[in-house]
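Q: My collaborator sent me two sequences in one message, no labels, and asked for predicted structures for both. Can we handle them in order? The first one she listed is below.
A: Yes, handling them in the order given. First sequence, followed by its structure tokens:
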Amino acid sequence: MTRFVKGNEAVVIGALYAGCDVYFGYPITPASEIAHAAAKVFPSVGREFLQAECETASINMVYGAAAAGTLAMTATSGPGMSLMQEGLSYMAGANLPGVVVNVMRAGPGLGNVYPEQGDYNQAVKGGGHGNYACAVVAPASVQEMCDLTMRAFGLAFAYRTPAIVLADGLLGQMMEALVLPERESPRPDTSDWALHGTAATRSHLVTSIYLDAAAQEAHNLRLQAKYAAMRSEARHETYLCDDAELVLLAYGICSRICRTAAEMLRAEGIRAGVFRPITLNPFPAEALCAVLEGRRGMVVELSAGQFRDDVLLHLAKEGGRTQPITLCNRLGGMVMTVEDVVQAARAVAKR
């Protein structure tokens, strides 16, 4: 079955197919349609919707629901995501799963409601305190706004960690055809750690505080081991890369611009391809190094170079090499055109 929906609405459909029990939300542009759709649809299918008084309350409600083994989520943008950082750190420290959708807008501060990708570091590097990380997926279509929301729930419960769906205002607001999932995801078993209010789960402990320094270090080392195991979940997509001499590196909406740019460049005789990470954490570093072997690279992003800097970092850490990576970017809610990317790529090809 196919529906014509907004990207924000596709998030809600994906959450329901993932088995999400409850949505805690506070509306904020350009993510408001997620809360609006959840308020309408969740109760109609026997799920719960609760509008929180603010973003800080909503993430802490997700924390409480997760501790009880419930599949819970929230969504926000920009300043709202900043308010959720303490709660995300608490969830990561307590080994609790949950999903947060960030439909990125321009910042810093209040910014504006136009699309940007300036929240990359906040999402991928752990925007709160402590040595924690979240699983991060980056959709590039309305279909993936649904599918990767489902994937985020799977990662969250498989590794008992918060998962972030990192989208942007364009993806949230655009409308495309969505093929509905064939079936609902299997419900995860939480009986060995969650607090179900039963005698069998009375001894379970949900906490992130270890007042003994040695115990806190051991807890942190367990978290790092979990994040290392999560690397097997890295996913990426390539387009026209088999014979490419220039690889355009982008995620989210920018990867769609790059696909068209690559086709136009090839029509001019410049063999261009596209590398798109689907998971930003874990990052497909090994695949990145392989696709850039002997090729030039140009990052296309809606930020000041946060993604480009990560590309350079992964090349150095995983591949043990340094190579110049050109940056084509816009800021403040301005979106580059296909022609902008083509012109920047021509300059790289000439060098």
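Q: And the one she listed second?
A: Here it is, processed independently of the first:
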Amino acid sequence: MATSGVVCNLRPRDALKLGQLCLNGGVWNGTRVIGKDWIDRSIRSYGIFIRPDWDPDHRCGYGWHFHQFTVAGRTYRDYAAEGNGGQLVMVFPELDMVVGINAGQYGSPLWYRWSLEIISKYLIPAAAGTGP
């Protein structure tokens, strides 16, 4: 029987490792695994994904999505791998931070809005030292 989708059994901690590998420019535990030039090309914007009502200026690279978060008057950028249902790996180079979210709200944009809100409201302020 043919299936219409790809099943991926990636554990959340392994997804975070992928984000950390990219944050490190392709180096894992001191060993180059992926060329830095490929990482740099993959996290460059090549297109726009239009969501004007709640995620303006959403851009895409080689499978990565790009967001901007303004917190305490400063803009932070990320690149993120995103799965339908709320599986996210978000890399924030300025903060030296990789965030993983593993939700299960398939086919609904609620997880997406929630994750963008929680990132800007709680995680970035905590990492940047601008939180309460």
